[in-house]
């Protein structure tokens, strides 16, 4: 039974059988791709199934080569299936692991082929040796006579030689048949090798075409990046305009609010203007009262001036009185001093008496 030895997931493609240039998707999404080993046949296969459909059934031979055409894409040609398979992986690591496993399986297939060839060469050598021994036996039979004569004259030894001769003839016939089969298989391998060479040549040409397409895609990508940069700059300008418009909208709303406030003030002023005649009448009456108050104030000022003059006269009189009073006090002090001296003199006279 076949056993899976390695499994991964990838997008599967096949070369277009008509153009031999373009890739045709074999699966709509990533599918499971596995390496299988058949222990009975000592062979390896890559198998992938999408639902109930087998999209890859490729037996690996030592002549196959897995080629990395990009960072995440690889391919190999299968001459038996007469097609080229391509796998697109999600990452470079998955592609590297698949390529390493392909190389390992390829080396294992090569070892298996070498062992089978050694076995075939051993059997061929044995058949050739048996073929070389057959002429000697026929020569001996020709010398000793015919088979009937040998049987009649040789006895049981001759019968044993005859049976061995028959076995050798059968072995020679089998070796000839095996040699023809080997020649057929060798021719088949040569044809497969030629197909593989053609497929590799076509894949190399496809690689050149893909490189050109990749360069074209890169140029288009650069152009798109420039356009994206332009659009981003335009978007930035548009954002600036949007911010400006939002600021203007806020300013308009503020102005509308101020306008409403001014209209309210104007309405209040209009209401106040209706009261202006009454205020004017009150103002006239107040003016008359003010004039009367000014007249009274003037009279009061005149009285104040008279009172100020009287105060100044009384102050000057008080000053004169203070001067006279000071003089009187000085005289009084002198008199007191004289009186004191008089008392002292009286006391002295009393003491003398």
What report would you give on this structure?
Helices cover 73% and strands 15% of the residues. It has helices spanning 92-144, 147-154, 156-352; strands spanning 2-15, 23-25, 31-38, 43-50, 53-59, 67-68, 73-78, 83-88. β7 and β8 form a beta hairpin. It is an alpha+beta fold. Residues 134-154 have low confidence and may be disordered. α1 runs antiparallel to α3 and α2 packs across α3. It is rod-shaped, with a radius of gyration of 68 Å.
Q: Short summary of the structure?
A:
With 353 residues, this protein is α+β, with helices and mostly antiparallel strands. 73% of the residues lie in helices and 15% in strands. Strands 1, 2, 3, 4, 5, 6, 7 and 8 form an eight-stranded antiparallel sheet that branches.
Record keyword descriptors for this entry:
alpha+beta; 8 strands; single chain; 353 residues; 8-stranded antiparallel beta sheet
Q: How many distinct helices?
A: 3
Run of helices and strands: EEEEEEEEHHH
Q: Nearest-angstrom radius of gyration?
A: 68 Å
Oligomer: single chain
Q: What is the topology?
A:
Elements: E1 2-15, E2 23-25, E3 31-38, E4 43-50, E5 53-59, E6 67-68, E7 73-78, E8 83-88, H1 92-144, H2 147-154, H3 156-352
Antiparallel strand pairs: 1-2, 1-3, 1-8, 3-4, 4-5, 6-7, 7-8
